[in-house]
Amino acid sequence: MTVTLITGGSSGIGAATARLLLDRGHRVAVTGRDRGRLDRLAGSCANPGELLTVTADAADPAAMQAAVDAALERFGRLDAAVANAGTATPDSVVDGDPEGWRDMVLTNVLGPALLIRSSIDALRATRGRIVLVGSVAGFIHTPGNLYGATKWALTGLAENTRRAVTADGVGVTLIAPGRVETAFWDPLGGIPEGRMLTAGQVAESIAWAIARPSGVDVNTVTIRPLGQPV
Known about the structure:
It comes from Actinomadura verrucosospora. This protein is α/β, with parallel strands linked by helices. The chain has helices spanning 12-23, 35-44, 61-75, 101-126, 146-165, 199-210, and strands spanning 3-6, 27-32, 51-55, 80-83, 129-133, 171-177, 220-223.
């Protein structure tokens, strides 16, 4: 039975992925900083016995190691690690407020690196997969956008990691969605106009990547809503 650990799994894409995998018979561990959200996720799942929730900051090295250790203790193995935790600020490096930048950079860039470092031994044992949830913003420049720069960093991290672990039989997939209708937009002034992906549609792509046959490594999946011009 496949075991997956998802950071930032209490809402949005992470929660949708956890529910989808649970519905398909997987065992899932999710991390999040908000205990209340984690409890609500567990309460909304039809099979909470196959779900482990861990309160953890994705940018905290000790917390990430503890989350991996908890998943291994509960389920006995780890087949996939999904770096989904992320945050954004609405401003520009030219005239924005640096107050929120540190948390964003640490969560979006350091967080995935910590998950890789904490989970790699377990993934080598199962010849598992690392999934990094990036963004179309990691391929297309947006004026002054530091969030986009963090996603460019994640795009690079995916290939750097692939080159480091492919000989060990560990796959690496970057999932790069376009606009997704989630609470991500709340601090950015609300959901923009135009077509949007659902969290469930992105979750389908993540689940598809995890389910690739042994020996197959799909490295980059870009998913946009029809009609998104960039």
